[in-house]
Design brief:
Elements (H helix, E strand, L loop, with lengths): L1 H25 L4 E10 L4 E4 L4 E4 L8 E9 L4 E9 L7 E9 L5 E4 L3 E2 L11 E9 L2 E9 L11 E10 L5 E3 L4 E5 L11 E10 L3 E4 L6 E3 L6 E2 L8 E11 L3 E4 L6 E2 L8 E8 L4 E10 L16 E12 L5 E7 L2 E7 L11 E12 L2 E5 L6 E5 L1
């Protein structure tokens, strides 16, 4: 009887041990790895936790963190996964601080250290950022980040968002932001019109002048034209508007009676009354929209009124005197009024007694006598009486 009980006990113990063995073989112990996917080719992926890398034969999404359970082999460099789920990182992360920048090619960097990112971020271009993540190869894989505003004060080699008036056109336009002239280096095909107001984002460079390197047309935002002010009161960077008389006309510029700066970008004759809309620059006016309001031929003959400015004189040449240096004077009279017309050698004019003369210019003096001065030979018309 005792023997029979022992046999039953041994059989029961054997059954229990068999069940334990079956359970062990059916659910073996699993390795666990949490890592960031830094490479995926479709047939296998690479995960890293910053200190250790593993590969597995699964197609995962780069930039995401996964928890993988399975069996490590190959000296711990590979894992045969039995369970894969997205996870929060449980490994130490690196911290990167700088300014976010993107290129039209799709690559993104953190300036000034030019740290290449694995992907572009949904933050304003040029903004200051603080990132947490992992470096792998030549890229930084961001997992978390915060952003601040884009700098509005220039620092060499860093992003700068500046607003101002286009100071000059051409392939390398300049911008006036209220205090400085900024040279703009724009992408091919991007043009700006003088006088318009723009907001521009680029990389500041301190050359002989402050420069802004712009790498995308999307970073240039026109915001209209500034409101015009009276031309006589307009200051640098403003658009001035008014009616003016042309006092002298050079090859490239006009001297006006309404402003002390020369006007560029428009052609008119001495004595013309013009409507001017111009950008005020530090040394000149640049025509934005100009037109001849009244031609000089409509000026009254002011030979008897020496206060006109500018003026037109018409009369008969009474006499002409030319000095050895080529300078000459001609007495022009009408009725009881007369004036000395100064004939600079550079004018290339030859007048004769008895001719009718009409001239456009300003009144001045010659050796204490009333005189009239013209700026070019085109301002004198003569013919026989």
């Amino acid at each position: 009887m005792v023997l029979k009980d022992r046999v039953v006990l041994l059989l029961a113990l054997g059954a229990v041990l068999s069940l334990v063995a079956l359970n062990y073989l059916g659910d073996p112990p699993r390795d666990r790895f949490v890592g960031l996917c830094v490479y995926s080719s479709g047939s296998f992926s690479v995960l890293t936790n910053g200190t250790h890398d593993v590969t597995l034969g699964e197609d995962l999404e780069e930039g995401k963190v996964y928890l993988v359970e399975g069996r490590l082999y190959g000296s711990g460099k590979r894992i045969k996964a039995s369970r894969i789920v997205e996870s929060e990182p449980d490994f130490p992360q690196e911290r990167v601080e700088g300014y976010y920048w993107s290129w039209p090619s799709g690559s993104c960097l953190i300036l000034p250290d030019r740290i290449r990112l694995s992907r572009c971020l949904d933050v304003p271009k040029g903004s200051k950022v603080i990132l947490s993540g992992l470096s792998y190869g030549e890229k930084f894989y961001p997992l978390e980040w915060t952003s601040e505003g884009v700098p509005t004060t220039p620092r060499d080699g860093l992003p700068w968002l500046v607003e101002g008036v286009v100071y000059s056109g051409g392939p390398k336009p300049r911008l006036w932001n209220g205090t400085d002239e900024i040279s703009l280096y724009l992408p091919y095909g991007v043009t700006l019109r003088p006088g318009e107001k723009v907001r521009v984002l680029g990389i500041a460079k301190f050359y002989s002048k402050i420069s802004l390197i712009v790498n995308s047309g999307d970073d240039v935002e026109p915001i209209g034209y500034p409101e015009s002010v009276p031309l006589r009161e307009a200051e640098t960077g403003e658009i001035g508007e008014g009616e003016c008389y042309v006092l002298s006309s050079g090859k490239r510029s006009l001297k006006l009676d309404c402003h002390n700066l020369p006007l560029y970008g428009f052609k008119a004759r001495v004595g013309d009354r013009i409507q001017v809309k111009a950008l005020v620059r530090r040394g000149s006016l640049l025509c934005i929209e100009c037109d001849v309001k009244e031609p000089r031929e409509k000026l009254e003959n002011s030979i008897c009124d020496k206060n006109a400015y500018p003026a037109k004189i018409s009369g008969i040449v009474e006499w002409v005197k030319v000095y050895g240096n080529g300078f000459g004077i001609a007495n022009v009279s009408k009725g009881n009024c007369w004036v000395l017309l100064k004939l600079k050698k550079s004018l290339g004019l030859t007048l004769h007694e008895g001719e009718n003369v009409t001239a456009y210019g300003i009144f001045t003096t010659y050796r204490g006598m009333e005189a009239f001065e013209v700026s070019s030979g085109d301002d004198v018309c003569s013919g026989n009486s």
